[in-house]
Write a structure and sequence with these properties.
The protein is built from 14 helices and twelve strands. With about 260 residues, the protein is of the alpha/beta class. The chain folds into two domains: about 130 residues, 3-Layer(aba) Sandwich (Oxidized Rhodanese, domain 1); about 100 residues, Rhodanese-like domain (Oxidized Rhodanese, domain 1, 3-Layer(aba) Sandwich).
Length: about 260
């Protein structure tokens, strides 16, 4: 009987322990000294205009979906620290950083990199926020957002194809490499068949999307690791491009296989 009671005690303890409570939020364990805020608490004080809200993702991601009244200061930029400290001189409000979701560490990294004391990480991310509070989110310039326009992981995966299939479609397609210049480092992967169209070069990107539409061709795209094309997908859907595919695994996988 004593063993049974001990088991029950241990089970209850683990169920309410901090480790269990933080499950699903890996940044909290990885950055134990960084203050964070739950979505519900953040929303409550956000509505009272108590925070300066900063989106630390890339500009392209920010332009696709964001929290209403947030500002964009990408944590990956070389001048992040300078820009965030300049912002801090203009407000007395605590600064809340956010990124994509629970497994994205950028909000925590921003707190550390900012070297400011009055900063907080909101780590549930933009998508959970948008689903819970669509009136306080903006999707492709529209707010409140239509939740039906949020692209599911299932729909994203439907447009990924293996390398061999991707290569077979190239002759009849408009092929774009959406990596930035630091990732591309020279020519593309497919013997000049692909055109460089980084996501942050909107006019250039738009030109190739229009070409695919006008010529009624398949639009093929690849990024560095198969993660950033999700933002391109929103643009493709908005423009009415339905016949498009992404390379599974991105350029990293291509190089890993030794294809080139």
């Amino acid at each position: 009987m004593n063993l049974v009671k001990l088991f029950i005690f241990l089970f209850c303890f683990l169920a309410i322990s901090p480790v269990s409570a933080e499950k699903g939020f890996p940044g909290r364990e990885r950055f134990p000294d960084v203050p964070y805020i739950s979505m519900e608490d953040f929303y409550k004080d956000y509505k009272k205009n108590k925070y300066m809200v900063v989106d630390v993702r890339s500009k392209f991601e920010y332009d696709v979906i964001k929290i209403v009244n947030s500002v964009n200061i990408p944590v990956a930029d070389d001048d992040f620290e300078t820009n965030i400290q300049a912002l801090a001189t203009k407000t007395s409000k605590p600064i809340v950083f956010y990124c994509n979701g629970r497994r994205c560490m950028k909000s925590f990294e921003a707190v550390v990199k900012s070297k400011l004391s009055n900063t907080i990480a909101y780590d549930a991310g933009i998508f959970e926020w948008a689903e819970a509070y669509p009136e306080e989110a903006e999707l492709l310039g529209e707010s409140p957002i239509d939740l039906n326009k949020l692209i599911s992981s299932k729909k994203l995966k439907q447009h990924f194809v293996p390398l061999k299939q991707f290569e077979q479609m190239i002759p009849d397609a408009v092929l774009i490499d959406v990596r930035d210049k630091t990732q591309r480092r020279g020519n593309g992967l497919f013997l000049l068949a692909d055109k460089s169209a980084p996501l942050d070069k909107t006019k250039k990107l738009e030109r190739y999307l229009n070409k695919a539409l006008k010529e009624d061709k398949i639009l093929l795209a690849y990024d560095q690791s198969g993660k950033t094309v999700r933002w391109l997908q929103y643009q493709l859907e908005k423009k009415g491009i339905k016949n498009y595919y992404f390379m599974e695994g991105g350029a990293k996988y291509y190089n890993y296989t030794g294809t080139n």
